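Input sequence (225 aa), recorded before submission:
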Amino acid sequence: MVTPVAEVKLCGHATLAASHILFSNGLVSSDIIEFDTLSGILTAKKVPESINPESVSNGEAKESFLIELDFPVVPTTEFSIDAVSISKALNSAPIIDVKKTTTFGDLFVVLPSGKDVAEINPEFGEILKCPGRGVIVSGVAPPESGFDFYSRFFCPKLGINEDPVCGSAHCALAPYWSKKLGKCDFMAYQASPRSGILDIHVDEQNQRVLLRGKAVTVMEGSVLV
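Predicted structure, token format:
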């Protein structure tokens, strides 16, 4: 996947979109696709979804499925940095902890709550000064929300101020919260202006993160090469 200024090694959006097109248009006969990427082999699996009565037309149910993406865990490590400068970049947000991902070099900032995450008004000029590719911010979700944790991902160095929903960031987020919350299955909310929901499973034994969701085709076109 290529942004306006860089090529990224792991991209959930691009993998999900490619899988959706291949599955939906019958371009693959298998329910499993393997992609050879800069991060290694990534697997996408077609998972049948329970039939919704509203999807039944003329007595026939339209095929409905989820796509499960199998990604490697992205480890995090302790990182020593002036919390004041990070807080300034995040509009004076209160900071509990700062880590760094070992794969992409993203800063991983933990705030007291998901509410704090959602209310951030980032200073992108200050974020550009931070080390690493981008800044992942996360906090425990409010109990009444129905989610386990909230997150956002700011990446102006890649030509995108904020990623609406970031699969690669959740490869670091899910293992972190798995240890903190003592569980392996999550419903996560990315609190970007567009927002998004992720169904996640952490396979600790095999060091994998399974992201499950749906995709839709919004436009079609042709490219002459």
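Checked by second reader. The chain has a mean pLDDT of 87.
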